[in-house]
Write a structure and sequence with these properties.
With 765 residues, this protein is α/β, with parallel strands linked by helices. Helix content is 33%, strand content 23%. Bound molecules: zinc ion (2 copies) and fe (iii) ion. Fe (iii) ion (FE) is lined by residues 489, 493, 513, 516, 714-715, 747.
């Protein structure tokens, strides 16, 4: 027989609140191992005693057989003296604060076992909207502090009944130490509160009343996991029009929630990867192409000008009950630039003018967290918005870093805190241009600091003095006596990309986006940078063009188009859509403005270049949300295959930089528009031109690309058509392209890069 050995084991990663201790307990019983297991602030600790061979099998299974929600990063063990124990037990968490903490799990969609119980009339949780277990349910959104234990969550106010407590205490049960465990007798409940005089209703009646309101084309505010949604029937053009009018959201697409995959297939094209994403435990909104032959017709008003649709499946039991086979619009419960509503009072105060009733509940949401949004490229995730289901899962860094706080940019803001090998990114906050959203960003950063016990030694922000986040960072750093690091926008994008890939060498990256302040005080956005956390070199850029009227040019692509056509020496002839968009008198004013360079900042923005292209093909002269023109240009280009020679950028060397001039591309597009060419084919050729330019520039800089890596980052690379084709062409040319899979290429990923630049300054000066 084997000699008896005892080992002390440490398991790190996301191993709390995911059923890991019960798993260890069952494993120990199965193999005949004595000892104990427990949670502490550093993860899971185990002592195990048995024969040598058994212990080896036990250690091996700790990682290999871990429960589905666990993300084991490290199993560390060493031998200690056997004590002759005969039992295996789960022991209590020590309450002492440790200096290291373990990531709390993100929120998890309803699991299959719970879904079956929800639908089983003989189950005591039949149709109970808060059913959950150790494999599913809210986590991050209900957690006030770590370690993750019921008293530190918003479930603390509900005392478990005898039956629930017995499940909670029994290691053989699926709900053993399920911190959010609840049932109709002891847990939270829903309430229907109509706007107006009608009486409120509770429990099953509340859901019935909400469904009746939806059936009559009403708008309902639904409290979910991370905040409120505004819901209406997705099959009703009238309900959608009402929602648009009340929410003051004219064109931005609405996401829908469909009851199951089969229903999604009736109106959208669902590939294998889409199906996996839709059904995954994160349950993000997945951007899908609309079906050409739908058997369930959803109104075009869901997303005017879009060939895609954001779709998600139900992730809370309440959604399951509410949908009951219908497809619903489920859009964030906010007024256009405000944060998502979190508390019942907040929702009633702010959303009453928008809705006909509220489906509320009394489980408090501690952290407001919007739905995440994902596209995919060649079977890999491309995050557009990283929030519920992902936050606060950290990005594991390739090296240890100093603790810093980064506050992000202006649009799609997120905050980031670093510690040891981790970067904790906040949930998506939104555009911090107004007071409420900025307050939400401040709150999110403070919560991360508290939750993960980070004491930042430095603060990081953008170079742009006009960003609300920059202004906050300046005062916040001063108030705490911390040094501040201002990070150039595109440098931050580059570093974020390298970080998520664990790339430690300098990276040559194409950083293409809408706007970011350059080190020369002009507006950048079509940049080729070589750099790492310690700094960067600008090796190339789009030829600068005037940006007449600054932000006005962003809202009105035709203004950008006229400026760029003029810069390219293309006459403003009447047949061109941007010309037609301007009355002759104002056109003359614009011409004078361009001539005298009045209020004309120079920009190298690729986003603005694509806006100009969208205007020239006649697609869009005004936008009502950021990136709209470029998104619609992609949609249009996607409808046709590549054909003919692409338009071509000209490349030139200028002051040690490689400059790519888009003037000839726009001139060629204008010529084809005037010749009556189809808009889709022209849009396609613009895409092809950008693709070929990237490959040509990469090739010209081949000797400067460490490891033959080429990074693709910035909001322009949310464009799937462009990203997919550039990746393929770069591979073909012998490069290894690097794109985003963990954090968004847009400004939602900016804080990660800022943090690493500041952490580098903190450590190395
Ligand atoms: Zn479950
Ligand atoms: Zn109960
Ligand atoms: Fe950006």
């Amino acid at each position: 027989m084997d000699a008896v050995v005892r080992v002390r084991v440490r398991v790190r990663g996301t191993v709390q609140g995911v059923g890991y201790r019960p798993f260890v307990w069952s494993l120990a019983h199965r193999l005949g191992v004595a000892g104990h297991v427990g949670n502490d602030a550093d993860g899971v600790f185990i002592e195990a005693e048995s024969g040598e061979g058994v212990i080896r099998a036990f250690l091996d299974a700790l990682e290999r057989e871990a429960p589905p929600l666990a993300a084991v990063e490290e199993v560390e063990h060493h031998r200690i003296s056997p004590v002759g124990e005969g039992q295996f037990a789960i022991v209590a968490s020590p309450t002492t604060a440790a200096d290291r903490v373990t990531p709390v799990s993100p929120d998890v969609a309803l699991c299959e076992a719970c879904r079956r119980e929800l639908r089983d009339p003989s189950d005591r949780r039949y149709r109970y909207p808060f059913i959950n277990c150790t494999d599913c349910g809210p986590r991050f959104t209900i957690t006030r502090a770590l370690p993750y234990d019921r008293p530190r969550t918003t479930m603390a106010v509900f005392t478990m009944c005898a039956l629930c407590q017995a499940e909670y205490d029994d290691p053989s049960q699926r709900r053993f130490h399920a911190q959010a465990n609840a049932c109709p007798d002891c847990g939270p409940h829903v309430e229907w509160r109509p706007v107006g005089d009608a009486a409120s209703r509770v429990r099953e009646d509340a859901i019935t009343a909400a469904r009746a309101c939806l059936a009559a084309d009403g708008i309902v505010a639904v409290k979910g996991i991370g905040g409120f949604h505004l819901a209406c029937r997705a099959t009703s053009a009238a309900a959608i029009a009402t929602l648009r009018a009340r929410k003051h959201r004219e064109e931005k697409p609405f996401a829908v929630m469909a009851p199951d995959l089969e229903t999604v297939r009736r109106f959208a094209i669902v590939g294998d990867e889409d199906a996996r994403l839709l059904q995954g435990r994160e349950r993000p909104i997945v951007i899908l192409a609309r079906s050409a032959v739908p058997t369930l017709d959803l109104p075009a008003g869901l997303g005017p000008g879009h060939h895609t649709l954001g779709v998600m499946l139900p992730y809370s039991p309440l959604h399951e009950l509410l949908l009951a086979g219908e497809v619903l619009v489920m859009t964030s419960g906010n007024l256009s630039d405000e944060p998502i509503a979190r508390t019942n009072d907040e929702a009633i105060e702010r959303l009453s003018p928008l809705v006909d009733g509220f489906l509320l509940h009394d489980r408090e949401i501690h952290v407001a967290t919007d739905d995440s949004v994902i596209r995919h490229v060649d079977g890999r995730e491309l995050p557009i918005r990283r929030s519920r289901g992902y936050a606060p899962y950290p990005v594991r860094l390739p090296y240890e870093v100093a603790s810093v706080l980064a506050v992000g940019g202006e649009l799609k803001a997120t905050g980031c805190l670093t510690r040891d090998h981790y970067a904790f990114l906040s949930q998506h906050i939104g555009d911090v241009g107004n007071h409420e959203t900025l307050a939400a960003l401040q709150h999110a950063c403070a919560h991360l600091e508290h939750l993960f016990e980070v004491s930042p030694r430095r603060v990081a922000c953008d170079l742009h003095p006009g960003y609300a986040s920059t202004q906050w960072a300046i005062t916040h750093a001063a108030a705490r006596g911390l040094p501040l690091t201002r990070v150039q926008h595109h440098h931050a994008h580059l570093v974020a990309l390298a970080a998520e890939h664990g790339w430690r060498e300098p990276l040559l990256a194409f950083v293409f986006d809408g706007t970011g302040l350059g080190t020369d005080q002009t507006i950048w956005g079509g940049e080729v940078l070589l750099g790492d956390a310690s700094g960067f070199e600008r090796l190339g850029h789009l030829a600068p063009t005037p940006l007449p009227g600054g932000d006005a040019a962003i809202r009105r692509p035709s203004r950008m188009a006229l400026a760029q056509l003029r810069a390219a020496g293309v006459p403003w002839s009447d047949g061109l859509p941007p010309v037609a968009d301007w009355p002759e008198a104002s056109r003359a004013v614009l011409a004078r403005q361009l001539e005298r360079k009045l209020h004309c900042a120079a920009t190298t923005s690729m986003g603005r270049f694509l806006d100009a292209a969208a205007s020239i093909v006649g697609l869009r002269q005004r936008v009502s949300y950021e990136g709209q023109a470029a998104i619609e240009l992609e949609a249009l280009a996607t409808t046709v295959p590549s054909h003919g020679a692409p338009y071509a950028f000209t490349l030139r060397e200028q002051g040690g930089s490689l400059v790519f001039d888009g003037g000839p591309v726009l001139a060629a597009a204008a010529r084809d528009v005037l010749a009556g060419g189809p808009a889709a084919a022209i849009a396609r050729r613009v895409h092809d031109a950008v693709r070929e330019m990237i490959v040509a520039v990469a090739d010209a800089l081949r000797d400067r690309a460490p490891g033959m890596r080429i990074g693709l980052t910035g909001g322009v690379f949310q464009n799937v058509l462009l990203t997919r084709e550039v990746v393929a062409r770069l591979r073909h040319a012998g490069f290894t392209p690097m794109t985003h899979h963990l954090v968004p290429p847009n400004d939602g990923g900016l804080a990660l890069g800022q943090a690493l630049v500041a952490a580098h300054v903190e450590r190395h000066g």
